[in-house]
Amino acid sequence: MMLSSDVSSAYFEGAAAAYQTTTAGLTPLSRPDWLPEAQWPFPTYRMRVEGSTIAVTDVGSGPVLLFVHTGFWSFLWRDVMLRLASDFRCICLDAPGVGRSDRLPKDLISLDRSAAAVAQVIEQRDLANVTLVVHDLGGPAGIAGAAQFPERVRAIAALNTFGWWPSGAVFRGMLALMSSTFIREFDVLTEFLPRVTSNAFGAGRNLDEASRKALRAGIGREGLRAFHLYMRDARHCDSLYSRVQAALTNEFRTLPFLTIFGDRNDPFKFQLRWKALFPHARQVVVAKGNHFPMCDDPNLVATTIRSWHRECVMPGH
Q1: Which residue segments constitute the domains of the chain, with CATH numbers given?
Q2: Is the pTM of this model over 0.90?
Q3: What is the pLDDT of residue 26?
């Protein structure tokens, strides 16, 4: 089982004492029946953003790591957070419309709204010296959101993600396919993608069956529909990509930068493009990794973030 006793103990010893100091002003979010504490050992809280509630987890103590994934939900960060919460303050959020955040009408699902949620977490939690850890559509959404407070951002770690307008027939074709009405409703009917995501090809390589079940339950049918709507918006949100490009080439240009990709899932050569944008970037490839490197090898990802942060982000901390 992924939540081995040694990892769980290390987490609780390092993070439990910080609950009272890091969660002031937040209202606890009730735990659903499908998410036992053994599968998600963190308390989660409500935060109001643009008229709806998002789910925010804020645990541990130390330098801030803000984990952003847009599409599914924060369960994808669980095993990395378990390994880092003894040394870092680990914060993650479910994007509007997915996970344990409020479901939204389809016309309100957008990367702009996800970016606004990231910005609100930074502002409402009064975060400083933030290391932004982004994955998938959380790349453009997280960077655009953090760009509202560039003085609070200390470094960026990009995991299987991008930060530019999607170009090329294959990339745009993939987004078009995944965002089509037929594929969306077929997936909602069959739950094909959650099943793939929770198996060894997706995020489930190191998950037991109870954890895979919790991952699928947290997606849910309406959350899955929102995932496809986020994919649709990724083809059209030009103003968001403009803000991301401006941040990456100006305020964020000299930040410490880390990329972590699975060696089986970089068909569009995103790591090369990141290296062109950030020549000083440290780049790591997860052997036999797919789209979720933080799930394929959480030990490697956590160790990499910890050592890079110590050597490049806050030396001597």
Answers
A1: 5-167+238-313 (3.40.50.1820)
A2: yes
A3: 81
